[in-house]
Every structure is written in structure tokens, then in C-alpha cells.
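Q: Entry one of two.
A:
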Amino acid sequence: MQQRLQKCISEAGVASRRTAEAMISAGRVTVNGKVARASYDVKVGDVIEIRFGAKTLRAEVLSVQETVKKDDAAAMYREL
């Protein structure tokens, strides 16, 4: 199963889908060390990095699901 990058970021609780799209367009999101595009389909094992000014969030995707409850979102990724 695959999921669009902005939806994955949104369901993980990092940002809204529109904000995630803006961060991706601004080049602040990388997947496996490469600048990401909004059309990227996230797969298990991908490492996503999001820059928030001086802070960077780095996480590995552990699970990709179509819908996720808020309480279960933390099980989808592991912070590195």
C-alpha cells in the first residue's frame, strides 16, 4: 500500500495537508535524502526529513495505512 507524502505528514500530526504541501513545495521536505515532490508515494522504510527553521524532524516510516485514528498515528513512524 502507498500513500501520498502530504497525507502521510498530515496523518502523523506534523502539519495540516495544505501546510504539508506548502513545505514540500518550498523544498523543506526530503525523502531518503532527496528533495521530495508532493506526488511522492511513501513506502515502509522511507526516511522523511522536515525542516522547521533550525529544527529538523527525521522519521522512518513503519506503516502506511489508508486511514488512521489520531491515537494510532504514532505507530506509523519512528523518530530518528
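Q: Entry two of two.
A:
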Amino acid sequence: QARPPDKPVVAMIGTGTLAGTFGPAIGKAGYAVVYGSRDPARAAVNELVRRTGPRASVASPREAAARAAIVILA
């Protein structure tokens, strides 16, 4: 049986209210999510990454966009 293709990486540029709603939902749907943050070490950003799931990470906005096939400005 054929294995379904891997889902593309999604960059969520921003870590505010919109990203906090959509990012975890996208992560729960099986996508890898990379947040683009001006302050990747901030505790609230790390909590958002944790809530998003095991395939979530954080980087600078530029690096997040470069790593992703889909970019959402949040």
C-alpha cells in the first residue's frame, strides 16, 4: 500500500493571538510548524511551540520562511 506523501512544512510568521490559534491546530493536523519570532527565546513563544506539538520549532522570521513550503503571516 502506498504511503501518503509527507505534509509540507508551514511557517507561521508571528507568535500572537492568530498564530496561537492557528499554529496548534495546524500542528495537530500533522504538519510541521516553524514559528517566525523576533524573540525566539521568549517563554511565551516556547510555550506556544510546546502546545503545537512534537514537529514544531521556532526560528527568526527569515529562517522560518526559508524552511517552509507554506508561509502564513500571522
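A: Comment on entry two: The longest strand covers residues 10-13. The mean pLDDT is 95.
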